Amino acid sequence: MRGYFGIGIENGKAEVNLGTLWRSAHIFGAAFIFTVGRRYKQQSSDVKKSWKSVPLFNFMTITELKSHLPFECLLVGVELISCAEEIETFTHPERAIYLLGSEDHGLSRTAANNCHRFIRLPGNDCLNVAVAGSIAMYDRLRQWKSNGKRIDLPTWQGKNGQG
Asked: What is the dihedral of CA 79, 75, 9, 87, to 10 degrees?
């Protein structure tokens, strides 16, 4: 597979959301996850121990995150704003970093001003941040597969070898 993506939360409040997002990121093939403005440790909701295969980066500010964006990688905000593209018609970039806002305030103005593009999920109310991130990652995977791109996803073996 060519391309990659990462996903993260700005000023997240509930630690369980990062653990759930981390687990989804592992399942959907994210290259990494990140936080902006808040640092986290291992999460109880990450029962698959995604931290062993999907790295977590912590940035103190949006400026710091933006200064570490990989070459030709777009910062895509996931937000309920009028200029956002509907996810159903959005073409996911080959190299993207998806940025989710906090559970109660969304993206900060600074974060929004630094995003290259925005996507909007269906509905008029905000979703749980881990759910919103999981939907965005699923849509990326769905779109890439429907366009015939090969995607290698991780496999997980449970205690009895069952996935």
From this structure: 40
Using an 8 Å Cβ cutoff, are 114 and 149 in contact? no
Give bridge partners of residue 75 from the DSSP assignment. 97
Joined together, the tokens standing for residue 96 give 């993207």
Residue pLDDT, tens place only, 17-26: 888 898 899 9
> CA-to-CA distance for 145 and 156, rounded, in angstroms?
20
Q: Do residues 129 and 9 make contact, with C-beta atoms less than 8 angstroms apart?
A: yes
Q: What is the largest CA-CA distance in the chain?
A: 48
- In CATH, the architecture of 4-146 is 3-Layer(aba) Sandwich (3.40)
Average pLDDT over residues 108-115: 96
**Domain chopping of the chain, boundaries:** 4-146
| pTM for the structure as a whole | 0.85
